[in-house]
Design brief:
In chain A, 26% of the residues lie in helices and 25% in strands. In chain A, a hairpin with a 4-residue loop joins strand 1 and strand 2. Chain A binds a DNA duplex (27 and 27 nucleotides) through helix 4.
DNA sequence: TCAAAAGTGTTTGGGTTACACCCATGA
DNA sequence: TCATGGGTGTAACCCAAACACTTTTGA
């Protein structure tokens, strides 16, 4: 707590009283529902309560690398879509002292998720929770989720990040269900879906999908064509600067 | 540095090694140019360098209230549009130890700005700098400005925050110049302005402007009509949920 | 009377929306 | 053959973009 300090900066030593954490809102999509990966805390404070996966930032870590570490320890996944959302800093949000948290959100393919044995340090348990049914959480984690979800809704309109949540091969209907789960989350349930024809027209006109010439197997109806996302074309477009709405 | 701590939380005491600051990107508009209020630092580190106004967050402050305090100490202004932007946390960004900064941006009417005597504590000097000509800054403050300006550009398309930067009475041309300064900042200088007729059509169709039935005085050409922004209508619209582009 | 900025409508094209029926498969 | 979801085209409408001349004032 007193390393790093320097006689030259005596007047500001009084401000080195805080700790900070990262908390990660990890989104996944299971074909019908948008979900968040929560852990059951195994240590104080809030031991036994559900919470966002997160931890203190170490001296050797940047904010981003701490967020990556938390994600990898829990899921085993690297190279994941990860964005800083916002920091929360109420004075008494942590009983152990002044702790600021930096919220992140990440998008993973839910099928890739495996609980890592190493994650059992802090987490007794990890589970996917549907956005709607999330219980009372530790700290101010419900606020972090609200901010993250708002950011996801904004992002999905201007960047094709939906693909981060889908398996490598997917159908247009799956893609549409994902957009509906994100964009129509607060709309009346069975009412206004997106229009199927218009959705397909729009998505296909972006030329970001590659037709795999394969179809679903084992479904009790006409099998759907499978597509993959064309990352190369997307990056080329991004360079040139583009945006779209849905 | 050791208050607040509790025997129950011994295992995390090691993480209370950091300090955190707020840095505020204060935008103003002088009729032609979008500007940022910078201070010349009067204390170490980076004494003598230009920097964003900012300071350490005290134990009794939230992040937001620290940002408000910094703004008020420097400008004397309260009730200002203020938004958190993003936190930066590179390991060695502050020579005195681990210091995370939380970036904010605010929008003020440039004519309201008066340097406060109390601000001379840390700031030897404060000055408006045109966005294009901002010199090398202390810390990573150029990054904070980049993030803040990107956020401003996004916000101005979906919320009528431009009015925060204009005097109470303004002309449509002034409003247009403001939008041009924000939205066309990276476009070739004298080339593509916004179209005057389309801009007016769009702005007036929003019904957020009140025609004051007054005109400019003392101009060497046909005087322009003056308008004010209708906050009541704006809030009503916001409740109902709206958005627009330009 | 001249310079300088204010003010004002119409046309065109592209994109979004609304909408209904046939197709392929497994049970 | 039936149930289930997959797949397809067109017309109407609205909003965005392009575009040029007249008006009012002070110098």
């Amino acid at each position: 707590m007193d390393n790093n300090h320097n006689i030259q900066f005596d007047h500001i030593n009084q401000f080195f009283y805080a700790a900070f954490t990262v908390d990660n809102v990890i989104f996944g999509f299971d074909g019908g529902d948008l979900k968040i990966l929560l852990i059951k805390r195994g240590e104080e404070p809030f031991s036994g309560k559900w919470a966002l996966p997160g931890y203190f930032v170490r001296k050797t870590e940047t904010l981003d690398s701490a967020a990556k570490r938390v994600l990898e320890e829990l899921t085993g996944l690297k190279n994941v879509y990860l964005q800083q959302v916002r920091s929360l800093g109420k004075i008494d949000r942590h009983p152990a002292g002044r702790v600021i948290t930096v919220g992140y959100f990440s998008l993973i393919k839910i099928e890739d998720y495996k609980i890592q044995p190493s994650a059992t340090g802090m987490a007794k348990q990890a589970e996917w929770w549907s956005l709607k049914e999330i219980a009372e959480l530790a700290f101010d984690h419900d606020e972090v989720i609200d901010f993250a979800f708002e950011m996801l809704k904004r992002r999905v309109r201007t960047q094709p990040i939906g693909f981060e949540l889908l398996p490598p091969k997917f159908t247009l209907t799956e893609l549409q269900q994902l957009y509906e789960a994100i964009l129509l989350s607060d709309a009346p349930p069975e009412s206004n879906k997106l229009d199927k024809r218009n959705f397909r027209k729009k998505i296909l006109s972006m030329n970001l999908l590659v037709d795999l010439n394969e179809v679903q197997e084992g479904v009790a109806h006409r099998p759907a064509k499978l597509y993959r996302f064309d990352k190369e074309k997307y990056h080329a477009l991004q360079q040139a600067g583009f945006s779209y709405g849905l």
